Known about the structure:
Elements: H1 9-16, E1 21-25, H2 32-39, E2 44-47, H3 51-59, H4 61-67, E3 72-75, H5 83-93, E4 101-105, H6 108-118, E5 123-127, H7 147-151, H8 156-175, H9 181-193, H10 201-208, H11 212-224, E6 228-231, E7 247-250, H12 253-259, H13 265-270, H14 274-292, E8 300-303, E9 309-317, E10 320-327, H15 338-346, E11 351-358, E12 367-370, E13 373-377, H16 380-385
Parallel strand pairs: 1-4, 1-5, 2-3, 3-4, 10-11, 11-13
Antiparallel strand pairs: 6-7, 8-9, 9-10, 12-13
Helix pairs in contact: 3-4, 4-5, 10-11
Amino acid sequence: MKIVPRLLSGEVLKAAKGFPxxxxxxxxxxxxxxxxxxxxxGASYHLLEDPDVIARLRSDPRAFIESLELPVILDEVQxxxxxxxxxxxxxxxxxxxxxxxxxxxxxxxxxMRGVTESMAGRAAVFQLLPFSIEEISKVSMFRGGFPEVIxxxxxxxxxxxxxxxxxxxxxxxxxxxxxxLATFRRFLSLLASRSGQMLNRTDLAAPLGVSIPTISxxxxxxxxxxxxxxxxPFFENFGKRxxxxxxxxxxxxxxxxxxxxxxxxxxxxxSPFLGAIFxxxxxxxxxxxxxxxxxxxxxxxxxxxxxLEVDFIxxxxxxxLLLLEAKATRTPMPSMALPMQRLAGSMKNYNVRACLxxxxxxxxxxxxxxxxIKAVVLSADFVRSIWS
Length: 388
């Protein structure tokens, strides 16, 4: 497969002109190393998972850091978090020299602790997720966007099986002292079946025979390692009693389909999980689009205790809100817009626009659905239009 430019490139290059260091997080195998090697021409490279490299660094960290040829890419730095202190020392000797240190990691929380404690003001932080539909048209609900799956779709099932095994054995054990990986694997499949639902820890704990605190820890692990998106409820009360639990989505819908045992596009279209998968696909594309534009993640949902629910609310600045309803249909109906109409009527202090996002159909892309609401196809053009 030819090299696909990542939309994050411009933001990273801009940051490299203003900061001594750039930190890149994201799920394992999302393309971080490949991205930096091709973006930062001539940079030296060191993988901090190599036992020999780790041994050299820990035996004489100062000598190791001093020997590096700058600019340098230090990959998977969460394995040796003490490296941050020594990198900071070198940066502080010549703070005017920018774009010399590029650090990656697959575990966001441990990585960010090192950045906060040692690199504050010295590093710009970005997150690289799997490919988006803005970057390559081959991204889909069934295959997802992991680069290796896009490149070799015929081996997708084998890749996802190996990915889960590697993820369980390396990342999960690195973050937590989980002993029963088989139960954690069952937890992944159970959580997959609850994608798009409000998080109910009791509902997850009971069939697995584990405690609610254990479920909370495992959810945290999936967030730390970039596997899921937790979408909180919108924070304002529009005269309604609102729920407080977040909704959970998988970052990559290809991985979600694998966990659900969906093995073809045709099976996906017949699946009772199609609606939740499509909703998660939209959520992931919004988050990816925010990250590559250098924006912080802002994605919410709305549900009150009377049952009024809107899938997503996207703040757009200056009092503007975008309401989105995801429907895995090729035939959007005006009745599907009613929840957004009711909620928009409560948002007197905002400039609100609303769209019902649906599957492509032969009848065209965008069309009026209800007063002030359009039906739009989930596409790269639509994602770009959110910020235009």
